[in-house]
Amino acid sequence: MPTLSVAEGQRRFFLNEMRVRTLAQAYVLEADELVKAAGPVMARFWPPLDGHVLPGDPYSLYEAGLYNDEPALIGTNSDEGALFMPHTGVELYNLGVEKQFGLFGPKLLAAYSADTDCASLHAAREIVGDSIFRWPTWAWARLQSKTGKSPVYSYLFSRKTRNVSIPGPVGALHASEIPFVFGNPQPDWTDADHALSDLMCTYWVNFATTGHLSGKGLPEWDKSDVRGSRLMKLDIRSSRMIDEPCMDRLQLFDQYFAWRRREFMSPKSSAHISHDPDDDECSGV
């Protein structure tokens, strides 16, 4: 997350793009002018570590137990990255990973290996999903389980998303669990989809009313532990507790982000962890 000084620099750059010097001058601009100047780069408006709303790095705050210790229900979908990575090729994939992840590039390319355009697209989607969604969720569950008293419940939503224009086979895309959580049936739902939605609605209502997920006739949902090794797999075939299927990849990203945090003060390197790319649960499809 950007520091306050970085965010202030981004603010000045943004104002310059709109040819104004102060926020007061920006306030009178038309909305379409602001949207055009902002462009598609959301990162320039990422919440900064301002010392007030966000007093420090969230990971460090959780390590120190400085957060609202409340029950948490968190999870990800099996193919989070597909929605954000529509295409790539082997050469572009290799260059992109090396540029994005620096000294960790070779480690990630070894763990997420790809020698064809089709394989590189799949690998790129997995890296996006793991780095932006799965690792932060996994880290949250582990840290709160270690430093807090309230339970954390983790899930992996695996119902494959259908009728999409995204190339290649896909699993459960980003946000595809939302209709199931809120009981919002879609035209192509089967009886199994309705049953999964009923199950998830019951879990979520139990959690909202009691802070726990137990209930008569429901598959037992264990709370997370300090390793983040257990989570509920939600799917039409069966919903059950499983071992975290991508632990090696998450541990690799744990090393990467630890390196990035250290690099903020002093650059260092981390060790390599291998990955079995044939694991079905990790594949997202």
Task: Please give the number of β-strands.
Answer: 4
Helical content class: 40-55%
Return residue spans where pLDDT drops below 50 for at least 5 consecutive residues.
267-280
| Beta strand % | 5-15%
Helix and strand run: HHHHEHHHEHHEEHH
Protein structure class: alpha/beta
Number of helices: 11
Quote the average pLDDT.
90
**Biggest β-sheet description:** 4 strands, mixed
Write down the Rg: 21 Å
Strand order of the largest sheet: 1-2-3-4
Q: What spatial form do the alpha-carbon principal axes imply?
A: globular
Give the N-terminus to C-terminus distance in angstroms.
Answer: 31 Å
Summarize the structure.
The protein is of the alpha/beta class and 285 residues long. It has 11 helices and 4 strands.
Topology:
Layout: H1 4-17, H2 23-27, H3 31-38, H4 58-63, E1 72-77, H5 90-101, H6 105-111, H7 117-147, E2 152-157, H8 178-181, H9 191-210, E3 230-234, E4 240-243, H10 247-263, H11 280-283
Parallel strand pairs: 1-2, 2-3
Antiparallel strand pairs: 3-4
Helix pairs in contact: 5-6, 5-7, 7-10
Written account of the structure:
With 285 residues, the chain is of the alpha/beta class. The chain is built from eleven helices and four strands. Strands 1-2-3-4 form a four-stranded mixed beta sheet, sandwiched between helices. Strand 3 (230-234) and strand 4 (240-243) form a beta hairpin. The protein is globular.
